[in-house]
Design goal:
The protein is of the alpha+beta class and 257 residues long. It has 2 domains: 6-107, no CATH class; 122-254, no CATH class. It is 22% helix and 32% strand. It is built from 7 helices and 15 strands. The strands form 4 sheets. It has a 6-stranded mixed β-sheet, with helices on one face. The chain has a 4-stranded mixed β-sheet with strand order 9-14-12-13. The longest helix has 10 residues, at 43-52. The two termini are 34 Å apart. It binds zinc ion. Zinc ion (ZN) is lined by residues 129, 133, 136, 147, 149-150.
Length: 257
């Protein structure tokens, strides 16, 4: 696999009765969450924060992945649990992390506070999604088109379809916006002021990478322009965002009509 700068992060809860004393090789662990993260030194600490207190509004805006994790019935990530970064496993210790020399015993057993991760197969989503995209929210800019409805379905079904950015910088996006009724050139996105001001800014916007000659040239927001207008009007500089992988964006891209 080419180094895309992204890590496949997997969260495992330890089901042993003495898990809290620390991970030991005979313990069984259960995969309960997975997601993509940008490669950097703090990925393990970010994961700990997300699944320890990340659903609690006292610690800042709740992370949608943490909220989903809790709704599925999982307990807080704690000492004795394990996180994989790609194929490297690390146990959570009273202070910091310990790299494991052998992978843990992985099972898919339910237990109190532990619900195994079972993503919906993407193939099933594609089968049930209308081939003509009737009723879908389709976003178009110049000759490019994407089905944002399908993109949301992929994100819900597959934790690895998108990376979550808590604070996408939106300050440069205002120049692409135009208000309903203005004479709009092709590269502008038209929004309605009243609709925009009624939007919920905690709902992540959706972006796709633009790939040219095999390289990522930037991202295009394909859903959430009303939220961006709302945020810019009230002086916000960032919004939460789902950033689709190239593969997921390809799945959602549509031919020109
Ligand atoms: Zn569609």
């Amino acid at each position: 696999m080419p180094d895309t700068g992204q890590l496949h992060v997997r969260i495992y809860l330890n089901s042993a009765p003495d898990a809290f004393r620390g991970y030991r090789p005979q313990h069984e662990v259960v995969e309960v969450a997975a997601y993509l993260a940008t490669r950097h030194d703090g990925v393990l600490d970010d994961a700990f924060h997300m699944f320890n207190v990340g659903d609690d509004p006292c610690f800042g805006p709740p992370d949608p992945r943490a909220v989903t994790y809790r709704l599925r019935g999982n307990r807080s990530l704690s000492v004795g649990d394990v996180i994989a970064l790609d194929d490297e496993f690390h146990s959570c210790e009273p202070a910091g992390w310990r790299a494991l020399t052998t992978p843990p015993l992985i099972t898919d057993m339910h237990a109190p506070g532990i619900t195994p991760l079972q993503p919906t197969p993407v193939a099933r989503i594609l089968e049930s999604h209308p081939a003509d995209h009737a009723g879908c929210h389709v976003f178009q800019v110049l000759t490019l088109r994407w089905c944002a409805t399908l993109a949301h379905q992929l994100i819900t079904a597959d934790p690895l379809a998108a990376e979550f950015a808590q604070q996408l910088d939106i300050t440069g996006l205002g120049r692409f916006l135009t208000l309903d009724g203005d004479d709009a050139p092709d590269v502008k996105v038209t929004v309605d002021d009243a609709t925009a001001m009624a939007t919920d800014l905690t709902k992540p916007v959706l972006s796709v990478p633009v790939v040219s000659m095999g390289e990522c040239r930037g991202h295009i927001v394909i859903d959430g322009w009303h939220r961006i207008h709302h945020a810019l009007v009230i002086g916000r500089t960032c919004l939460p965002a789902w950033m689709l992988t190239g593969e997921a964006a390809q799945t959602c891209s549509l031919p020109m009509e």
